[in-house]
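fold description:
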Amino acid sequence: MSVRTRFAPSPTGFLHVGGARTALYSWLFARQTGGQFILRIEDTDLERSTPEAVDAILEAMAWLDLGWDEGPFYQTKHFDRYRAVADQLLASGDAYRCYCSKERLEKLREEQSAHKEKPRYDGHCRDALDTRKDASFVLRFRNPLVGEVVIQDCVRGEVVVQNAELDDLIIVRSDGTPTYNFTVVVDDWDMKVTHVIRGDDHLNNTPRQINILKALNADLPIYAHIPMILGSDGKRLSKRHGAVSVQQYQTEGILPQALLNYLVRLGWSHGDQEIFSREEMIQYFKLDQVNKAPAAFNPEKLLWLNQHYIKNLPVETIVKHLTPQFAVLNIDTTEGPSLEKIVIAQRDRAKTLVEMAEKSAFFYQDLTEIDPSLKSQHLNMESLAALLVLRTRLTDVSTWIASEIHEAIVETTEALGIKLGKLAQPLRVAVTGGTTSPSIDVTLELMGKLRVLERLGRVLDGYQPER
């Protein structure tokens, strides 16, 4: 059997990290088994689905580099197929027309609620012979009244549901549009999906979908229901816990390699290993090793992983993802040090790419003003006198590299009889406008001789040394 998995998001918003984990697990299982990974866009919710959400999902999948072998397929383009299958079920007696009004159904729910019964359709039209031509109706699936559905779940083990607990669900609405549980069945059948990997919030739908598949004499896929992701408070992960979409983490400067590494470990483990290459994920991942219990999202762990990847990924990979961060800050990086050099200088100092870009902005932006508190603390008469001497020495540096710059700084401190810190920090404030940067000699090299001398000149403008 050739494995075929699918990821089927609804385009009603951005790609949630829970959905991204489902996509990752499905992708990994397909890659591990030499199978196919299918992308399907479930856009039958016409009121909430948007083209922008579709684009956001596709962009997030591309950013995560979870490439699909088939698709993307759109359910709204398969309405004719759904109608044909619905007619097939109607003809075989496995579906029937239901003419119940909204008022009747609402009254039924109220009565059931008053008697503390589970809200469900009572089968009023199940055996009715009424075929009124002009009346509005929905199509309901004729669910078996006896027996049970046994789900051999790869994650949860055996799950048994009695058919008596299931009602006759609607498969086609009164306006002719198919419902989720019906379209999913038809698509999984047509696409020959062998393994349905999805969140355990869909577990209640599975017995209903299995019964429809059986009515169609279709092969049943193997199911794996993944537990939900919780926030730090033990509640389902949502916006109140911070970023929850893939795009938000991208915006916040998280690398896709870090996010994937974090998500693969969110409910699955391989011994005590924390860092996984893509190849190792494919090699080691096992569906039956996914934990049944919900996993808690830990932002600090994600930042730790992100910092690891910033430090260890190839420089050109970091540059690719760092470049958009400067664009967000409206910083033109064509005039100044190369981003490759910025990454090398800053990779040990940043947890996110946003932090790296913000900490490197001074290399490209004009420094028009220095915070008054920093001026009073670091640019006093004593330090300005030292900077004046240093500027003259730096002017004479012929080869503008860190080692030559370092030598010039050390010679100046020795000539003035002061410690290196007494000169380095005022120098840093003068040329960067802040108190943190890479080592001062590297900072000056990256900044360039002309820009360094200009900024020192601006700080020293109007300074008169004591005689």
About this structure: The chain has a mean pLDDT of 94.
